[in-house]
Write a structure and sequence with these properties.
Among the domains are: 10-42, no CATH class; 70-108, no CATH class. The chain is 0% helix and 14% strand. It has no helices and six strands. A hairpin with a 5-residue loop joins strand 5 and strand 6.
Length: 117
C-alpha cells in the first residue's frame, strides 16, 4: 500500500496537545507522537543490564575414577594397629603407615555431659 507524502499534513502532539507539522512529530519508545520540545528518550533504568553471576559448576566434568584416591577404604589386618598411650590417647602403629588397612570396630568418647535440673 502506498502512502502520500503529507507535506501539508498537521498532527497534534500527544503530550502537550499543540498542533505541529506531522513530519516534525517524533515517535517515542512508548508509541507516543510528540513534538521536539516534549520528546523524551527512553530512560536507561527501563532496560537494566543483566547481572551475570559467577559460574558454580563445570559443564560436563570428567572426575577421576581412581579407586585409591578419594574412596577412603581403611583395611586393618593387624590387631595391634592402635594402642593406648599413657594419656589414654590412641596412637597408630607406625609400621603399617602407607598400607591399606581395615577397622572392624572402633569406639571413642569425648568428655562428659552433666545435666542439672
Amino acid at each position: 500500500m502506498a502512502y502520500s507524502l503529507g507535506k501539508f499534513a498537521l498532527g497534534i502532539c500527544d503530550r502537550c496537545g499543540f498542533e505541529y507539522k506531522l513530519s516534525d512529530l517524533r515517535e517515542e519508545w512508548n508509541k507516543l507522537k510528540t513534538c521536539p520540545e516534549c520528546f523524551e528518550p527512553k530512560a536507561p533504568q527501563l532496560e537494566p543490564t543483566p547481572i551475570v553471576t559467577d559460574p558454580e559448576a563445570l559443564y560436563n566434568p570428567r572426575p577421576s575414577n581412581d579407586v585409591e584416591v578419594g574412596e577412603g577404604f581403611v583395611v586393618v589386618s593387624d590387631a595391634n594397629t592402635f594402642s593406648a598411650t599413657s594419656n589414654n590417647f590412641l596412637s597408630m602403629n607406625p609400621a603399617i603407615l602407607g598400607t591399606n588397612f581395615t577397622i572392624t570396630e572402633m569406639t571413642a568418647s569425648v568428655g562428659s555431659v552433666t545435666i542439672t535440673i
